[in-house]
Amino acid sequence: MDNLASFVLLGLGFALGLVVLYHLRQRRAERLRLRLLAGQSHLLSAQLAQRLGDLKRLELEPLDGLPAEAGASLDELHVLLVERQAHLQNCEDLVHLQKQKISWLAKAPKLPPPTRETRPAAPSTFPAQRRNHLEDQLLRQIEDLNKQRRNPPSPPPKK
Q1: pLDDT tens per residue, range 72-121
Q2: HSE-up of 141 (CA within 13 Å, CB side)?
Q3: With pLDDT > 70 as the criterion, what percentage of the chain qualifies?
Q4: Closest alpha carbon to 40 in 32, 26, 28
Q5: Alpha-carbon span 146 to 129, nearest angstrom
Q6: FRET pair for 111, CA 20 to 30 Å: which of 1, 119, 144, 155?
Q7: pLDDT confidence of residue 153
Q8: pLDDT class of 124 with cuts at 50, 70, 90
Q9: CA separation (Å) from 92 to 83, 85, 97, 99, 114?
Q10: How far apart are the two ends of the chain, measured CA to CA in Å?
Q11: SS3 content of the chain, % helix, strand, coil (to 5)
């Protein structure tokens, strides 16, 4: 029985030792994790301090004109957009008109092909004679007007 009791005590002691070693290992891992977190926290706080310093050193004066410039750019873009929409509307109107013209031409009766007119070989003297006659008439009218200016009509005699 002594062997059995010593064997059980030895097994219990061994199990107890394993449990203690497991807890020690867990505690060591926890401490290591806490040290890593503390290091990361320290690095993050250093980066945060650096960024805050950068923000304090940042000059805000160049940024003051940006809202006005952005507003002007936005207005210009709006004008360009309106112009583009007007251009697109004009193009759509032209397409509609072209389609309407095509449909009208498709419905129109077919005309016979034009025939070539033959001109007389000898030039006609009729237009030249008529021109000369018109020129003479115009010159006579001008001459009459000039005579009237030179010799104004006398007023009728008084009674």
Answers
A1: 999 999 999 999 999 999 999 999 999 999 988 888 777 777 777 666 55
A2: 6
A3: 87
A4: 32
A5: 26
A6: 119
A7: 59
A8: low
A9: 14, 10, 9, 11, 35
A10: 184
A11: 80, 0, 20
Residue found under tokens 């010593």: 6
Query: 89 CB contacts (<8 Å, ≥6 apart)?
Result: none
Distance, in Å, from the CA atom of 100 to the CA atom of 95, rounded to the nearest integer, reads: 9
> Distance between CA atoms of 112 and 103, rounded to whole angstroms?
20
The Cα–Cα gap between 159 and 157 comes to 6
Which of 88-97, 121-130, 141-150 comes out lowest in average pLDDT?
A: 121-130
Q: What would the two tokens of residue 141 be?
A: 């009218």
Query: What mean pLDDT is predicted for residues 20-40?
Result: 95
DSSP string, 75-132: HHHHHHHHHHHHHHHHHHHHHHHHHHHHHHHHHSPPPPPPPPPPPPSSPPSHHHHHHH
The two tokens of residue 106 are: 């498709």
Least reliable range by pLDDT among 18-27, 112-121, 124-133: 112-121
Residue with tokens 């310093």: 53
The residue with tokens 């008439």 is: 137
